[in-house]
C-alpha cells in the first residue's frame, strides 16, 4: 500500500477543491509524471486498463481481426471483442511466454488490421520481430503493457513501442490507482483521438467531433496513482530482491523453472511465475497449488481455462486458426508465487524449503492429498 499520510493529504486536497472529475489537476499531474518516467510524448489517463485497450484500439482505427496471445488475462481479447473486433489467438514462445512472431504470421488474413501483443509477467515482447511482421503486412502494432510498468526493452522504457501501449493501473499492479489505466503513445494524432474519445468525443462546449465514451480517470484515483508512483522505486527494489531470493530458493528444486528470465535491463519483478514439470517435480501444478495453499502460501494458477477455451471464443475456428502447443502446455503448468512489499526474504526461504520437501516426498504427498477430502486433489494420470 502507498504511504497513507501522503494519500490522505492528496485526498483532502481533492475534497477541498471540490474538483472530483473531468480532467482535474491530479489527472494532469499524473499524466505528466508518468510521461516523464516513461520518456514518452503522450500519456492519456483513463478509468481502467480494459477501457485503455478499447480506447487505444478505436483511436488507432483498428478493424476486423486483431492477433492477440491466448496466454494473457482475458481482458486483452475481451476488450477487442467488446468493441466489435475479432481477437484471433496466436501462440507464445516458451522462453518468455510472449507472442511468437512466427505464430502471429500464420494468423494473418486479409481481414487482419493489427497485432496486440502482451508484455506478459513484465517480460518484453519480441518487439523487433513483431514490428517487422507488422511492417511487412501493413499491420498496426499495439501492446498491452499492463504487467510491464517500470520495465525496459532495448534500454527504453516500455510504453515507447508500436503505435501505442495500454497499461492497467489496477490495484494488483506494481503501479496502481486503485482502478485506472493509461494509453501511452508518441503519436500526436493517436493521443489527440484518445483524449477526445475518453470524454464523449467532445472538443469544446459547443462541438462534438465523433462518437466517444466516458473513459475518464477521476481525481481520487489519480491521487492514489500519484501516491503509488512516489513509492514505486522502493516497491520495485523490494520485488527485485525477492526475485533474487526466489532464484536462489528454486534453483536446486528439480522440475521447477522460473518463467522470468534474468536480465541486465530494468524489470519490475512483480510476477514470480514458475513452470512445474510434473515428471521431474513429482506433482503436477494443481497438486502443488493445493499443497501450497494448505500450507498458507497464496500461490495462484494462470490463466485458466485459457482465453481460447473460454466463451465466446471456445471452438470458434475464426478465433484460433493455428495450433498453440506452448500455450496449451503453459495453461496446465504455470504457477505464480507471492511477492510484494509484504513478502520477506525469510518467507521466500521457507517457501523454497517447502517446495524442496514436497519434491523430495512427492509420492507420499500425492497419496496424502489424493485421500484428503479437504484438498480434493485428483492426480493426473500422466
Ligand atoms: C494483461 C492484462 N491486460 C489487461 C488487464 C485489464 O486491466 P484492468 O483490470 O485495469 O481493466 C489486466 C489486468 O487487470 C491484465 O493483467
From TrEMBL:
GO BP term, example: polysaccharide biosynthetic process
UniProt-listed SUPFAM superfamilies: PLP-dependent transferases
Enzyme's top EC category: transferase
Single Gene Ontology MF annotation: pyridoxal phosphate binding
Active site residues according to the UniProt entry: 173
EC annotation from Swiss-Prot or TrEMBL: 2.6.1.87
Keyword terms, alphabetized: Aminotransferase, Pyridoxal phosphate, Transferase
Position of the signal peptide: none
Annotated protein name in UniProt: UDP-4-amino-4-deoxy-L-arabinose--oxoglutarate aminotransferase
Family: Belongs to the DegT/DnrJ/EryC1 family.
Gene3D superfamilies documented for this protein: Aspartate Aminotransferase, domain 1, Type I PLP-dependent aspartate aminotransferase-like (Major domain)
Superkingdom of origin: Bacteria
Entry-annotated residues carrying N6-(pyridoxal phosphate)lysine: 173
Keyword Transferase: yes
Statement: the UniProt record of this protein carries the keyword Transferase: yes
Species for this entry: Fuerstiella marisgermanici
